[in-house]
Amino acid sequence: MKACIYPGSFDPITKGHMDIIGRARNLFPKVFVGVLNNPAKRNLFSVDKRIEMIRRAAAGMDGVEVVAFDGLLVELMKKLDCRIIIRGLRTGTDLELEQQLSVINGKLLPGAETVALLSKPETYFISSSAVRELIEFRADISDYVPKEVADMINGGNAK
């Protein structure tokens, strides 16, 4: 069985992320969503809360499993016996970064491949950083995150 992994911080997960997960699931029987725990990065939500958000948003999607990781992505890929990385691309800048990471990951884990999915026009402008800023200012985020996530955040279940 070919599985893929879609890594990220997902702080919080957005409708753009969910679109990529759904499209990856159409291509692969198993999609691991790898939630990065990077202590050097100041996240708005804890890893556990981000995992809960993704699990709620992906509740109806068979073949999607959420896992936390820290350290190198390729180490998690070895544990999961997974060699395919899914990345969503919004801009040319994303492409340049992902090309660099693809080469590095391929050197660290021979056989690792990166599959890039282009963001759809209705989601390409959505970013977690923009959503975090909206949250900080208590603005409406319902157009940018799944309903389950908006409900968690608006219900005071943050952090």
Question: How would you summarize this macromolecular structure in one to three sentences?
Answer:
By secondary structure, this protein is α/β, with parallel strands linked by helices. 42% of the residues lie in helices and 19% in strands. The chain has a single domain, classed as HUPs (Rossmann fold, 3-Layer(aba) Sandwich).
CATH class placement? Alpha Beta
Tally of domains: 1
Uncertain residue ranges: none
CATH topology: Rossmann fold
CATH superfamily: HUPs
How many runs of DSSP E, i.e. beta strands? 5
- Just name the CATH architecture: 3-Layer(aba) Sandwich
Give the termini separation.
Answer: 36 Å
Can you summarize the main beta sheet?
5 strands, parallel
Give the structural class: alpha/beta
Question: Overall pLDDT, averaged?
Answer: 94
EC number: 2.7.7.3
InterPro entries: Cyt_trans-like, PPAT, Rossmann-like_a/b/a_fold
GO molecular function: ATP binding; pantetheine-phosphate adenylyltransferase activity
Subunit structure: Homohexamer.
Any chance you could write out the topology, listing elements then pairs?
Layout: E1 3-8, H1 15-27, E2 30-36, H2 47-57, E3 64-69, H3 73-80, E4 84-89, H4 92-108, E5 113-118, H5 128-136, H6 147-154
Parallel strand pairs: 1-2, 1-4, 2-3, 4-5
Helix pairs in contact: 2-6
